[in-house]
Amino acid sequence: MDAEISIKRNAKVDAREREEESHRTGISNSGPQELLRKAYASLKNQDAVSAEVVLEEAQQIYFEDPEVNFALKCVKWWLERIKKLDGFQEAYDKGGFILSQWNSFFSFLERIGSAAFEPCLYAVRRFVFSSALDYFKDVLGEGENQHEPVLLLQVGQCYKGIGNYDLALRYLQQAVRFLREDGKTLSELADVNALLDETRAAKALFREAFFMDPQGVDLSNMESAMIIRLRDRVASLGISGPELPEWIPIYGSIFGTLSVKRALRPVDLGRLRQSIFSLESEIRSGPDNARILRPRLINRYLWLIDHYENAQEDPALIEETMLKIKIIDPGIFERMR
């Protein structure tokens, strides 16, 4: 009987101690979700250190929970990068370094091979782009930097990253005025338009970006469902690496995703024909990057066909261009027929 009383007394003591510890650390008996919410809130407020503390406490109790372990790995990875900011003197360089690590972060996630948890990735995104934005805003100020195109692009990217699409649109529109042929800037503006349901503008801008500078388009940073679906559909055909952005506008035309087209001015038509001539000559020389140049040339043929149709030119010109596509890639020719 004494032993039974002792066991019950100890159980009550243990329960009371657990309850006190719960109040002290914020840990509840409802599982790890409350702790995860607390950690994610800290991340969104740009306090990764507090998020790490909460997640380490959570791991001690829920050491087998996959989301807790995933979140802790993410936070630790970013804290290691944030430490390197001390090596930069200028606010602009600090913001640029943070942005430069975004794609590296996803490479890290691929290496650890863990299932990704969207609430965590969203909180990390808010932490990363809010932190970079603070540095860029310090540089932007009210003076001449308001007209610095790369800075405007970076500020726009940050606002997109934290979900403020209206401000992202404002800054990216300003950046495009200076960077009219930059694939990265055009695609970021296209992506924000798609996120704001400005579908027609988004389609036209994506088409322009993939024509002007396909290798400049950062597909990993696109968020809109329109371009993600198209990217994944083209990738499912076995196309990857540097070839992927070259083929996206071609299949985007075939699938009807990039269906908004603009009329070419005489100067645009002249540049298009010169570009086609240069690519044809380069491909005939058998370059090492022919796998990239061939789809780039096909895309220019598509623009030329669109012009012929728009201007109601002789159908024989369209047929002649289609035959050129057939020589380069019979499969694409059949899809277009």
Q: How much β-strand is present in the residues?
A: under 5%
Q: Provide the succession of SSEs.
A: HHHHHHHHHHHHHHHH
Helix content: over 70%
- The number of distinct β-strands equals 0
* SSE class: mainly alpha
Give the CA-based shape. elongated
Uncertain segments are: 1-28
Give the averaged pLDDT, no decimals: 91
Using the CA coordinates, give the radius of gyration: 26 Å
Query: So what's the oligomer here?
Result: single chain
- The N- to C-terminal Cα distance equals 90 Å
Biggest sheet statistics:
none
Quick overview of this protein structure:
The protein is an all-alpha fold. It has helices spanning 2-25, 33-44, 48-61, 66-83, 91-112, 118-140, 149-161, 165-178, 183-195, 199-212, 225-235, 244-255, 266-284, 290-310, 315-328, 330-336.
Can you put this structure into words, describing what you see?
This protein is 74% helix and 0% strand. The chain is mostly helical. It has a domain at 239-337. Helix 9 (183-195) runs antiparallel to helix 10 (199-212). The termini are far apart. The model is unreliable at 1-28 (pLDDT under 50).
Features:
single chain, mainly alpha, 74% helix, 337 residues, 16 helices
Write the layout of secondary structure elements.
Layout: H1 2-25, H2 33-44, H3 48-61, H4 66-83, H5 91-112, H6 118-140, H7 149-161, H8 165-178, H9 183-195, H10 199-212, H11 225-235, H12 244-255, H13 266-284, H14 290-310, H15 315-328, H16 330-336
Helix pairs in contact: 2-3, 2-6, 3-4, 4-5, 4-6, 5-6, 6-7, 7-8, 8-9, 9-10, 10-12, 11-12, 12-14, 13-14, 14-15, 15-16
